């Protein structure tokens, strides 16, 4: 979880406000996404790497060990892509569309476009809402089938609830989840409490 600083809480205060202006919602949720991505990158492995500074000294630094790619879960996960590209402009980015089947009520995979050799490195899996965890689990299973090791999956979410965290971690203990807030619980309509409403609708202006 991101450190619960006053700064972060002030950002959440904006996006959770039902009266937030759309431009404020977009701007501030993007700022939190940037913090989440930077935090998630810090969980990746790094190797020692030295460079020469302009004043002729050696700086003993680090650089990422492996390639990293990202997969967004449409539609809400696409909202994180712009911030990800701002931080990692050349990142390879896949996409999944998973929706709940109206009859079985189970998550169903409609589309999976994954970068080639995705199993070679770490994967940032993007979905701002970790609610029931059903979609997250389905997406993780697609990645496992594609050869990604569980411990190489970093799930990036803006808000999670205990139900979603348990659903993922009870089944995939090695997956790491980065979030900026853990809310109390889901209500009877599977909305988070105190929550944010329908994130995708608010972000894309379809509410
Ligand atoms: N998805 C949302 O957009 N909001 C919630 O509260 C739960 C799932």
From TrEMBL:
The protein's name in its UniProt record: uracil phosphoribosyltransferase
SUPFAM superfamilies linked to this entry: PRTase-like
Enzyme class: transferase
Domain Phosphoribosyltransferase, first and last residues per copy: 3-206
Keyword presence, Membrane: no
Family designation: Belongs to the UPRTase family.
Cited Pfam families: UPRTase
Encoding gene per record: upp_1
UniProt KW keywords: Allosteric enzyme, Glycosyltransferase, GTP-binding, Nucleotide-binding, Transferase
GO MF, one example: uracil phosphoribosyltransferase activity
Cofactor: Mg(2+)
CDD domains for the chain: PRTases_typeI
The keyword Glycosyltransferase belongs to this UniProt entry's keyword annotation: yes
Involved pathway(s): Pyrimidine metabolism; UMP biosynthesis via salvage pathway; UMP from uracil: step 1/1
InterPro entries reported for this sequence: PRTase-like, PRTase_dom
Classification lineage: Bacteria, Bacillati, Actinomycetota, Actinomycetes, Micromonosporales
Record EC number: 2.4.2.9
């Amino acid at each position: 979880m991101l450190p619960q600083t006053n700064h972060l809480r002030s950002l959440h205060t904006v996006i959770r406000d039902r009266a937030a202006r759309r431009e404020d919602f977009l701007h501030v949720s993007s700022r939190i996404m940037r913090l989440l991505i930077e935090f998630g990158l810090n969980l990746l492995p790094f190797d020692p790497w030295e460079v020469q500074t302009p004043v002729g000294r050696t700086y003993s630094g680090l650089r990422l060990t492996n390639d990293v790619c990202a997969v967004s879960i449409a539609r809400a996960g696409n909202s994180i892509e712009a911030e990800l590209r701002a931080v990692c402009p050349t990142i390879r980015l896949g996409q999944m569309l998973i929706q709940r089947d109206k009859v079985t009520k189970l998550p169903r995979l409609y589309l999976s476009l994954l970068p080639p050799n995705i199993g070679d490195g770490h994967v940032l899996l993007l979905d701002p809402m970790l609610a029931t965890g059903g979609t997250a689990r389905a997406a993780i299973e697609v990645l496992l089938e594609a050869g990604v090791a569980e411990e190489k999956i970093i799930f990036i979410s803006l808000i999670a609830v205990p139900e979603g965290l348990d659903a993922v971690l009870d089944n995939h203990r090695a997956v790491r989840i980065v979030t900026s807030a853990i809310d109390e619980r889901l209500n009877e309509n599977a909305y988070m409490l105190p929550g944010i409403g329908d994130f995708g609708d608010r972000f894309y202006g379809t509410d």
